[in-house]
Amino acid sequence: MTRLLTIAAALIRNPHLGISEKESYFKVHFLNARNEVSEIERTLGIELNRVREISETGRYYIRCNVRDGDQIHKIATFYNEKLRYQQEKRNRCFDIPFFSESHIQEAINLLGDKK
């Protein structure tokens, strides 16, 4: 899975928590997710929440998460299109599932933005 797909999936799976710079390093195994987050925002014309947090060692880092259900829909559609492209044009990522409407609704419910 590409870095962009990985970050988009993290934003959808845990919309209430989002993803932080720290988590992108330890869980997703790359140093910084800021470029991917910025690309998602630019492409979709959205602005994610950015929350400044402090670690146990006293260092500051940023956590990004979605604002509402509309952003979840946009990111999920973007994710599905990018995944379809990887499968059809690049002939890879066949073992990765798409986000269905039920997955999207679960994410919206996690966020507390029921439709």
Structure in a nutshell:
The chain is an alpha+beta fold and 115 residues long.
Walk me through what this model shows.
Helix 1 (3-13) packs antiparallel against helix 4 (69-88). Strand 2 (49-54) and strand 3 (60-65) form a beta hairpin. The chain has helices at 3-13, 21-26, 34-44, 69-88, 101-111, and strands at 19-20, 49-54, 60-65. The chain is 51% helix and 12% strand. The protein has one domain (3-111). Strands 1-3-2 form a 3-stranded antiparallel β-sheet. The protein is an alpha+beta fold.
Topology:
Blueprint: H1 3-13, E1 19-20, H2 21-26, H3 34-44, E2 49-54, E3 60-65, H4 69-88, H5 101-111
| Average predicted local confidence, pLDDT | 90
Number of domains: 1
* Gyration radius from CA atoms, angstroms: 14 Å
How would you classify the helix and strand content by structural class? alpha+beta
Q: Choose one word for the global shape.
A: globular
> Which percent band covers the strand fraction?
5-15%
Task: Give a quick account of the main beta sheet: strands, pairing sense, barrel closure.
Answer: 3 strands, antiparallel
- Percentage of helical residues? 40-55%
Number of β-strand runs = 3
Number of DSSP helical runs = 5
Strand order across the largest sheet:
1-3-2
List keywords for this structure.
115 residues, alpha+beta, 5 helices
